[in-house]
TrEMBL record:
Protein name: Voltage-dependent L-type calcium channel subunit alpha
Membrane topology summary: Multi-pass membrane protein
GO molecular function: high voltage-gated calcium channel activity; metal ion binding
UniProt similarity note: Belongs to the calcium channel alpha-1 subunit (TC 1.A.1.11) family.
Length: 1134
């Protein structure tokens, strides 16, 4: 708190001349308020009040029609108290700092501006007219006060790094947001032109033209025309039963539509998020056909989702890395400076003490007893500098024979705990305990249940014994100084509590803590000497925990704010007559889970549709509430969650640096050993007679060497013939082989083969897979014979030129040539087995030939870098996969213990177990429109369950993909007891399991795989640099080489009409005028909407004609002044 206090004191000294034109800096009121505002007690009191206010707001359960619970009415009585406290805080700060006129005044701080708006908005309901205060709810603004504890982040470096990186990235992120908005507007305008009104048609029954013929759960768009005239891929109604009419509001209550620019932008943004974009594609296919429809959606996904949204990853990753380096370097500098200062002060103090003691020792009047005391004190001080006493010193400190024996026993136990056999014994016990936990499953045999019951106590006792032994041998201080030991203690203590809870509490469920013991297997990576990359990866992940915890704190604040905001906007509105959806904002728990669901992008669009319908739908202003979900998706998913990727990139960088440092140390040791060996050889050579021994050593090194291969680094150089015999027949000077080598190394040969490969791939794609004896297939079969013959001849020619496989550089020494020979061999075999089932299976192998164009990757450095990055990433992914699988196994074991046998259900929801789920029951149609039917009750289990470890792994992997995980969450929260049916919201606390799982896997581990590709690509790019220049210098050199002077056209004649036109079109006012026309034309295109009056459409068409004329005039003027060739040199003009 020292630096913070100093900063505050400096700010107080610069408070301006007066506060509110009344109180000078020296007035008693101003000094008292300054002291009060700058005291830590005041700051923490306000923060605690903010937290209490947020808790009170979260306890306000929302009911339909603005009803309130008794608890909500009681909490309303606390609102005046909070308002008084916040008002006193605001007035006190205004008195202490001044209002706004001078530097460091109250309104010159962003946090204070937010507080001022919140406090003033709290008084608005009191001054509004009667009946209007209920329609404006400003309580939500108070939730943003929960951000105020972030002002104290200066003392937490990891939180400071995360917040600073996000703050520094705001500028680039705003640019990306504007670019994304521009792209969304462009695609929305195109969609408005092509699909306006297309989704408003559906099939209506001929018996009742107001009844929609449903397809699945609702209607589907159709093509309003005859089936013969319908475009390819479109959907037409059955003319015998229905007719296609344009009076449907559209899919999703008309929200998914291109009828106006607002709905079109919302639909385009949904497609960019890649959630539910395929139904939109299929609906437009049904309405207008699928022949050219893909031209709109594929560029939309590629540009919007694959490219623009991933720009956020690069921005956040770069800012996080730079900010972490800056904070760590500054923190290291300050720590080193503080340590040096303390060391100087301590050394000065100790020197003064030692000089005083020397003077005392030098005096004759000092007794021998005092001299011994001083010497003993110095000896103990020297021993105190060591962290641990030696065994001799520990035994020497024993006061009796009994304590000496106790200390000898402790030393023996300590030696035993440090032995390798003891370590591996503990690891084997952990592995066996993991196996016993993993084999537990539902409906297991009785003997296995009894065995696992006693095995649990046996392993728990063994781990408690091991913990006590290590605690006694090492001592509490040394034992708890290790993070692994602290983790062991927490897990074992939790396991003891879990065992007591399960065995003493009736029908108590397991907490799954025993599955966490498998994490102790990570200790293997700490000491292993044979897998340094994996060990370094684990160390880097452990070092990233502080940044992850800081990000989780920010994420919790973000989710909490949007949950409270959602409760104020949609609380109690999701209670429809049919049902209340599971994703709602009625309580704080439901709101938190719903916001978290939107962050995972699982079915977020349906939650938005429900919210819009609950607020009046598309036609009554409900569409404005889509801004809440768009902002939640952009800020939470695309910005905040992508910081996990930045942390993952930084962790992999740290692991790579550790591995590189170890490899460099290993190389240094090898070089040292090599130099030592050479020195010994020189000594032996000097000792030996006439250097005979040295000659023999040199002779041994030169024997067995192979002829050097030609230098192939220069890609433009023609590959020379190999200096080996081909097939033991053709030498390197054979005329036939020389001519053959000249032929296969010519560029036209590779070009011809590439063309044949493309034609072969096209012929395979053109085959009819349904009708095998189609005339087109018979024609393509002859082409297949020709292509296979060409490829076989190519393989034969290259084998004659390079040789088969006996020497370096031969044909089968290249993996691509192996693939070619395999494909050709399979094709020849398929011809032999043609007409048989074996021939059909081998025919698909020929598709591998489309991979052969990858041989051209070596000709393009950029493609080669990308391909090498993919291959290298696949090699390095194995280390991450091991840690990934271990954590997945741990979560699976915990899931089995939590939900084993609890995912059963009865088809009749009123029955709760298998005994009651017998017989038959009535099923009524929706809204009672049909007569009830009789169905048999079925006792079944959910498709995704945790009955055994294998099923749990599959369930968790499905949850990790964020596809359908909300249903698994609801099943888990509804689980009751083993062999009993579900009860809604019975175990709400089980959501914690999935939240932790999402943080570990989708938010972090999945991003590690992405970060691996990024880090690998950067490493490969840096590996291309030479030792003499760094990356920045190479970028400067490349820029200088590629830079070209800007060409500015100036007419030769400086008079005449063309010269005046050139001056006009190159003037800044003209460019600004054209930019204004472009903006106005864009706004004009956005004003179009489906169902507009005819005169309105005519006005838009006339205005569009005017803009087209103006742009044509601009084009003609530039063509006349620049000429066609000069104008086309600029890409925008082209």
């Amino acid at each position: 708190m020292g630096p913070v206090q100093k900063k505050k004191t400096d700010n107080v000294a610069d408070q301006g001349p007066t506060s509110l034109f009344l109180f000078t800096p020296s007035s008693p009121v101003r000094r008292l308020t300054n002291w009060f505002v700058n005291s830590p007690v005041f700051e923490w009191t306000i923060i605690i009040t903010i937290i209490a206010n947020c808790v009170v707001m979260s306890l306000d359960d929302k009911l339909p029609v603005h009803d309130k619970t008794v608890l909500s009415l009681q909490m309303e009585d606390l609102e005046p108290i909070f308002m008084i406290i916040f008002t006193i805080e605001m007035c006190t700060k205004i008195l202490a700092l001044g209002f706004i006129l001078h530097k460091n005044s109250y309104m010159r701080n962003l946090w204070n501006i937010m507080d001022f708006i919140v406090v003033v908005s709290g008084f608005l309901p009191l001054i509004l007219p009667a009946g209007l205060e209920g329609s404006i709810n400003l309580n939500t603004l108070r939730t943003f006060r929960v951000l105020r504890p972030l002002k104290l982040v200066s003392g937490v470096p990891s939180l400071q790094v995360v917040m600073s990186s996000i703050g520094k990235a705001i500028g680039p992120l705003v640019n990306i947001a504007l670019l994304l908005l521009f792209a969304v507007i462009i695609f929305a305008i195109v969609g408005l032109e092509f699909y306006a009104g297309a989704l408003n048609t559906t099939c209506y029954s001929l018996d009742d033209l107001n009844t929609i013929v449903t397809e699945g759960e609702g209607g589907a768009p159709c093509f309003p025309g005859q089936e013969k005239k319908a475009p390819m891929g479109s959907y037409t109604c059955n003319i015998q039963k229905s007719v296609c009419l344009e009076k449907w509001e559209g899919p999703n209550s008309g929200i998914t539509s291109f009828d106006n620019i607002g709905l079109a932008m919302l639909t385009v943004f949904q497609c960019v998020s890649m959630e539910g974009w395929t139904p939109i594609l299929y609906w437009t296919n049904d309405a207008i056909g699928s022949a050219y429809n893909w031209i709109f959606f594929i560029p939309l996904i590629v540009v919007g989702s694959f490219f623009m949204l991933n720009l956020v990853l690069g921005v956040l990753s770069g800012e996080f890395a730079k900010e972490k380096d800056r904070v760590e370097s500054r923190a290291g500098f300050l720590l080193l400076k503080e340590e040096q200062k303390l060391e100087r002060e301590m050394n000065g103090y100790m020197n003064w003490i030692c000089k005083a003691e020397d003077l005392v020792l030098a005096e004759e009047r000092t007794s021998e007893y005092d001299k011994k005391r001083i010497v003993e004190a110095r000896r103990k001080a020297a021993e105190g500098k060591r962290k641990q006493k030696t065994e001799e010193e520990e035994l020497a400190g024993a006061t009796s024979e009994f304590w000496a024996r106790i200390r000898r026993a402790r030393i023996c136990i300590r030696r035993m705990c440090k032995q390798q056999w003891w370590f591996w014994l503990v690891i084997i016990l952990v592995f066996l305990n993991t196996c016993t936990v993993a084999v537990e499953h539902y409906n297991q045999p009785q003997w296995l249940t009894i065995f696992l019951y006693y095995a649990e106590f046996l392993f728990l006792g063994a781990f408690v014994f091991e913990m006590c032994i290590r605690l006694y041998a090492l001592g509490p201080f040394i034992y708890f100084s290790s993070a692994f030991n602290r983790f062991d203690c927490v897990v074992i203590t939790g396991s003891i509590f879990e065992v007591l809870w399960v065995n003493l509490q009736p029908r108590a469920g397991s907490f799954g803590l025993s599955g966490l013991r498998a994490l102790r297997l990570l200790r293997v990576f700490k000491v292993t000497k044979y897998w340094s990359p994996l060990r370094n990866l684990v160390i880097a992940l452990m070092n990233a925990l502080s940044s992850i915890m800081s990000l989780l704190f920010l994420l919790f604040l973000f989710i909490f704010i949007f949950a409270l905001l959602g409760m104020q906007l949609f609380g109690g509105s999701f209670n429809f007559p049919d049902e209340t959806p599971t994703s709602n904002f009625n309580t704080i728990i439901n709101a938190l889970l719903t916001v978290f669901q939107v962050l995972t992008e699982e079915d977020w669009n349906n939650v938005m549709y429900t919210a819009i319908v609950s607020q009046g739908g598309r036609h009554n202003g409900g569409i404005i509430y889509s801004i809440y979900f768009v902002m939640l998706t952009l800020l939470g998913n695309y910005c905040l969650l992508n910081v996990f990727l930045a942390i993952a990139c930084d962790s992999l960088d740290q692991a790579a640096e550790l591995t590189a440092a170890e490899e460099a140390e290993k190389e240094r040791q090898e070089e040292e050993q090599e130099r030592q060996r050479l020195r010994e050889q020189q000594e032996l050579k000097a000792i030996g007679a006439d250097g005979q021994l040295g000659d023999e050593l040199r002779g041994d090194e030169e024997e067995g060497g192979e002829p050097p291969l030609p230098d192939m680094d220069d890609e433009d150089q023609v590959r020379p013939i190999l200096p080996y015999s081909s097939l033991f027949i053709l030498t390197s000077t054979n005329p036939f082989r020389v001519g053959l080598h000249w032929f296969v190394t010519k560029p036209f040969f590779d070009g011809f083969i590439m063309i044949v490969i493309l034609l072969s791939s096209a012929s395979l794609a053109a085959e009819d897979p349904v009708e095998e004896h189609h005339p087109r297939n018979l024609l393509l079969q002859y082409f297949d014979y020709v292509f296979t013959a060409i490829f076989a001849i190519e393989c034969l020619l290259k084998i004659l030129d390079l040789g088969a496989c006996a020497h370096p550089g031969s044909y089968l020494r290249d993996i691509w040539n192996v693939l070619d020979s395999l494909v050709v061999s399979c094709a020849l075999i398929s011809f032999y087995f043609q007409g048989t089932p074996m021939g059909q299976k081998l025919k698909s192998v020929k598709l591998l030939r489309v991979l052969r164009p990858l041989k051209m990757v070596n000709r393009v450095p950029a493609l080669k870098a990308v391909f090498d990055c993919v291959v290298t990433s696949l090699k390095n992914v194995f280390n991450i996969l091991i840690v990934y699988m271990l954590f997945l196994l741990i979560f699976a074991m915990v899931g089995v213990q939590l939900f084993n046998g609890k995912f059963f259900y009865c088809s009749d929801a009123s029955k709760g177990n298998a005994e009651e789920c017998q017989g038959e029951y009535f099923v009524f149609g929706e809204h009672g429109e049909t007569s009830p039917t009789v169905e048999r009750r079925v006792w079944d289990i959910k498709a995704f369950n945790y009955d055994n470890c294998g099923a749990a792994i599959i369930t968790l992997f499905a949850v990790q993909t964020s596809e359908g995980w909300v249903d698994v969450l609801q099943n888990s929260m509804s689980s009751t007891f083993e062999d009993e049916g579900p009860f809604p919201w019975f175990s709400t606390e089980m959501a914690i399991f999935y939240i932790v799982y999402f943080v570990v896997f989708p938010f972090f581990f999945v991003n590690i795989f992405v970060a691996l590709v990024i880090v690998t690509f950067n490493e490969l790019g840096e590996a291309e640099l030479t030792d003499d220049i760094d990356k920045n210098q190479k970028s400067c050199i490349d820029f200088v080489i590629m830079a070209k002077p800007m060409e500015v056209y100036i007419p030769e004649e400086t008079s005449g009409c063309l010269y005046q036109i050139w001056r006009l079109v190159t003037s800044p006012p003209f460019e600004n005028f054209i930019m204004l026309l472009i903006v106005l034309n864009t706004v004009l295109l956005m004003m179009k909407y489906h169902g507009a009056p005819l005169h309105y459409t005519d006005i838009l068409s006339d205005c569009n004609l005017v803009f087209t004329t103006l742009f044509t005039v601009e084009c003609v003027m530039k063509l006349s002044s620049f000429g066609y060739k000069l104008r086309q040199q600029e890409s925008w003009n082209g």
